[in-house]
C-alpha cells in the first residue's frame, strides 16, 4: 500500500470527526500527488459538489493563493470559507510565514530551496509540517510556510543553512512580500479551451496537452481540471505538473483568420 492509499482513510477519519464533533480538522501539508489523489476520490464520490468530501465542506490553503503545497481543512457547520480566509489573514492560526535571513549577508552562500529544506529536515521536522519555501532571488534568505505547532522549533533551532549562519523569525501575513516573477507570452489559439491554451503555454501538441488533463496533472485555480475542453476565464491560475504554471489573461485581439490572440503570464 502506497502513501496515497494510506492518505484517503485518514482524510475520511478527519471528515468524520468534523461531522460528528462539529469542529475544524486539518491535515499536514499535501504535495501535488496527494492533492490529486484526494480530488480523484472526491470527484468519484460527489461529482456535483467540488467543495464537499464525505459529506463535509472543505478547502485547501497553503499560506498564499499561489501555494503548491497546501493543507486540507474540513469546516464545521458554523464556519464558511470566507470566515476562514478572514481569520487566517489576521490570526494565521494554522499556517505561519517565517522569514529566514543570513546573519551576515556579505558572507552568505548562494542558498537553494534544497539547502533550506535539508536544514529543516536535519532538525527532525517532517515534510508534512513544511509548505512552500520561497527563496529570495537577491540572496537575502527565504520565506517558508510552516504549521504553527513547529514554529518554535524553526525559530529557535534553525541557525545554519549549509555553512551560512541564519536567523528565523515569524512574519505577520501583511509582511509577506513574495512577489512572483512573470514572463509575458502571447500567441494564437482556436478557442479558449484549456488544452489549446496549455499547448500554447508549454509549447506542446494539442494531443499532449489533452493527455495531461486526462491524467489529472493539470490544476485550474488549485482544483483538478474538469476536462480538456474546459473554457478558461481571464485571471485563472493554471498549473501542469512537471511543466510549470501561468496566469491566463484572456484574449487581446482576433486575427484575420478568426483565431484568438491570447496573453499569458508565465511564472519564472
- What percent of residues adopt helix (DSSP H or I)? 25-40%
How large, in whole angstroms, is the Cα Rg?
20 Å
Instruction: Figure out the total of helices.
Output: 7
The strands making up the biggest β-sheet line up spatially as: 10-15-14-13-11-12
Helix and strand string, N-terminal first? Answer: HEHEEEHEHEEHEEEHHEEEEE
Question: Helix/strand-derived class?
Answer: alpha+beta
Provide an overview of this structure.
The protein has 268 residues and is of the alpha+beta class. It has three domains: 3-89, no CATH class; 95-175, Alpha-Beta Plaits; 182-267, Structural Genomics Hypothetical 15.5 Kd Protein In mrcA-pckA Intergenic Region, Chain A (Roll), CATH 3.10.290. Helices cover 29% and strands 29% of the residues. The strands form three sheets. Strands 10-15-14-13-11-12 form a six-stranded antiparallel sheet. A hairpin with a 6-residue loop joins β6 (130-135) and β7 (142-147). α1 packs across α2 (32-45) and α6 packs across α7. The two termini are 36 Å apart. The mean pLDDT is 91.
Itemize the secondary structure elements and their pairings.
Layout: H1 3-21, E1 25-26, H2 32-45, E2 52-53, E3 56-61, E4 71-74, H3 81-90, E5 95-102, H4 113-122, E6 130-135, E7 142-147, H5 151-157, E8 160-161, E9 164-170, E10 182-189, H6 194-202, H7 206-214, E11 218-220, E12 223-224, E13 237-240, E14 244-254, E15 260-267
Antiparallel strand pairs: 1-4, 2-3, 3-4, 5-7, 5-9, 6-7, 8-9, 10-15, 11-12, 11-13, 13-14, 14-15
